[in-house]
Amino acid sequence: MLELKSIVKRYDGLTAVDSLSLVIEPGCIYGLLGPNGAGKTTTIRMIMGIIEPDEGEIRIFGEAFSESVKERIGYLPEERGLYRRMKVLDLLVFLGEIKGIPARTASERAGRWLERVDLAGWADKTVESLSKGMQQKIQFISTVLHDPQLVILDEPFAGLDPINTQLIKDIIIEMKEKGRAVVLSTHLMDQVEKLGERICLINKGRKVLEGAIADVKMQFSKNVVTMRFSGDRAVFEGHPGIEQVRDFGRELSLTLGPDMKPNDVLRFAIDRGKVEKFEIGEMSLHDIFIAKVKEDGGEVDNEVS
Amino acid sequence: MRLTMKFLKVARREYLERVKKKSFLVGTVLGPVLMGAMIIVPGMLFELTPESQVTMAVVDIESAIYNEFTESLQDTLDDGSSMFVFRHVRASEGEIDQVKRSLNAEIEADAIDGYLIIPGDIVSKGEAAYFGKRLGAVKTLERVERALDQAVIGKRLAGEGMDYSKVKNMIRGVKLKTMRVSKGEERKSDFEMIFITTFVFIMMLYMTILLWGVAVQRSIIEEKNNRVVEVLLSSLTSFDLMIGKILGVGAVGLTQYAIWSIFALLASFYALSTGTFAGAVSFTWVTLAYFALFYVLGFLFYASLFAGIGSVCNSDQEAQQLQTPVVMCLVFTILVPMAVIQNPDGTFATVVSLIPFFTPIVMFMRINVLMPPAWQIVLSVAILIMSIYVAGKLAAKIFHIGVLMYGKRPSVREIFKWLKRA
To answer: How confident is the model at residue B190 (pLDDT cuts 50, 70, 90)?
Structure first.
């Protein structure tokens, strides 16, 4: 559905995006992750044809970029912006029209969407009379009003309360189920962790790693389990499959050897005492990102680390 | 630089949002009112300045012309009282200094407004002096001077044995009527009328081109600031956006003109039917057609420049610096009307009217005053259209890059770099 082939974008000697390649399939929620300034927005602007890459190729729906392609993509920019003095419905119809759908269709759909996000009564109000969160939802509607096959959301949850965040998440999942591809660009990696399927981590314009979230996690999850255990803690020390035991007092942390699975440890523990809490230590995407960048000899901006 | 049909949507939105605004209604209604006020009020104020009674001491040494002088100043004020109150002060040449001192004191005490000293040799020398606190009442002093004139000339003529009124009748001058020959037909020419209508028209051109040109610039800055621009560019091209904006705003200007024209037409029909202002409306359909043409072309040219400026600025204040040279070009055109009207087919007028920055206003002015050769009109319009194309292209290049740049305004050198690159 979307394919980037080693695209490069330079600004006055600074390389904002450095030979980035990725493939996004339909029916997938794809996380484009990285700290602020990593090159996410620049990448998205190139996908949208707002700016052109200096090198490389972008293919969308199997074809090279053309103006008509824009009509099949929905884009929620990180920098939100609406015409403040326009009425909500007029604005949505206008934004729908420039995405190529007829005014009437745009108006009908906008009505339905406004109901869906609980803003049905606001159609005739001006945008500036809405709260920030409401404006966010209006902007989100404008992104999906023309039923795009590819939706690119740049920091979609910024400024939303938990209820509205959930609402937008639900809609994103629905879109995915309808076979749309959704690209989530965010520096808050934990948001994508539960929602997404595939991710691409970028830092300073370069791809750090890409893949299915499950695989990435598997690859990076160290075999660590945390346990609250009443019994003789010394039993773990002598176990050949356990490489390290750290006693934190209330809890224990065990580093497992390559042949030891968490299940085996749990079975071993149950036989020897009472297990009150058992947790498989999984690294968060955030930790993986930092670990990976460091492993590659790179640096991470303070904000992330 | 691609253009898709979506610029029409942008233009329509721009147009509707502006026309629906209250400020448009107010501007459309108040525009002509203000314009009329600007022309009429200063004159009216001058005419209406109430004249008040003037108390004047007249020191007529040797009583040379006192009686003749005061007799010809019998003007009355609106309330019927006489405008001048005279006090005859007799004094000999030797007492003059002393009399002046006491009269100066009276002026200081507001007992009199001023005094006139008529020397004994006024008839031969033709000189007198007025002393007063306020010398700004030009019209009053003009009357005094005229009355002195009349009295002195009368005396001189009487000295030669002639009667003033007879002589006045004999030396009455010839009145030269001027007729303008245009397209082989004689027309009653009223230079003042031509001047005034031309001036009103070019002021309107100037103000609307500036107003709507800057409106394009503002609207671009506003969209940059509220970041709508990124949403728009994900749907259409930067060229669509720029062209749509220029056309939408330009159409608002045209709508305003259409409304004004309808009013002007109604007013002139009314004037013609009642006969009150017959002849006051001194323009033709040809004038209006040229007006529309030069508004459209002038606006397109200047709006392109303003669009380019707006796209690289983040605030109106920032834009002010960059727009100064452009605004100066417009201002220049309204500084030259006298030169052009006096010599509408001279080298200066011809050259200036062919420079695209000045064509819209100066060429229109020339057409109004003295129809220039057709080739000059065609040439000026051709140059202007070409310039619009070039300005539009350059502006679009700057716009394409500038409109997504936030933060620091690029330097002029950087902008040139963009032009080369794009």
So the answer is: low
The model's pLDDT over A17-31, given as tens digits with 9 standing for 90+, comes to 988 999 998 989 999
For residue B295, being part of any structural domain is answered with yes
What pLDDT does A98 receive? 93
Of A48, A84, A94, the CB nearest to B234: A48
Residue B225 sits in the same domain as residue B374: yes
- Number of structural domains in chain B: 2
Q: What residue of A is the nearest CA neighbor of B7? A: A98
Contacts of B22 in chain A (CB under 8 A): none
Q: Could you tell me if B5 lies within 8 Å of chain A, comparing CB atoms?
A: no
Break chain A into its structural domains and give their ranges. Answer: 2-217, 222-281
Judge if B240 and B205 occupy the same domain. yes
pLDDT at A225: 85
pLDDT reported for residue B279: 46
Contacts of B230 by beta carbon, 8 Å cutoff, 6+ apart: A45, A50, A77, A79, A81, B404
Backbone angles phi, psi at A158, to 5 degrees: -60, 125
Q: Do B203 and B163 reside in the same domain of the chain?
A: no
Closest-approach residue (CA) in chain B for A45 = B234
On the question of pLDDT at B277 being above 60, the answer is: no
CB contact under 8 A, A50 and B2: no
Domain extent at residue B160: 54-170
| Mean pLDDT over each residue of chain B, to the nearest integer | 83
Q: How far is Cα B39 from Cα B32, in angstroms, rounded to an integer? A: 11
Of residues B2, B9, B223, nearest to A94 (C-beta): B9
Is B202 in the same domain as B229?
Answer: yes
d(CA B263, CA A45): 49
Comparing A50 with B306, the larger pLDDT belongs to B306
Q: Which of A81-85, A284-288, B216-220, B359-363 has the lowest mean pLDDT?
A: A284-288
Specify the residue for token string 């020959």.
B181
**What class is the A222-281 domain?**
alpha beta
Is residue B184 included in any domain, yes or no? no
pLDDT at B29 over 80: yes
What pLDDT is recorded for position B36? 67
Q: Where are the beta strands (DSSP E) in chain A?
A: 2-11, 14-24, 29-33, 55-60, 63-64, 73-76, 150-154, 181-186, 198-203, 206-212, 224-231, 242-247, 252-256, 273-281
Given a cut of 50, whether residue B35 has pLDDT beyond it is yes
Residues B414, B384, single domain; the answer is yes
Query: What CATH number should be reported for the domain whose range is A2-217?
Result: 3.40.50.300
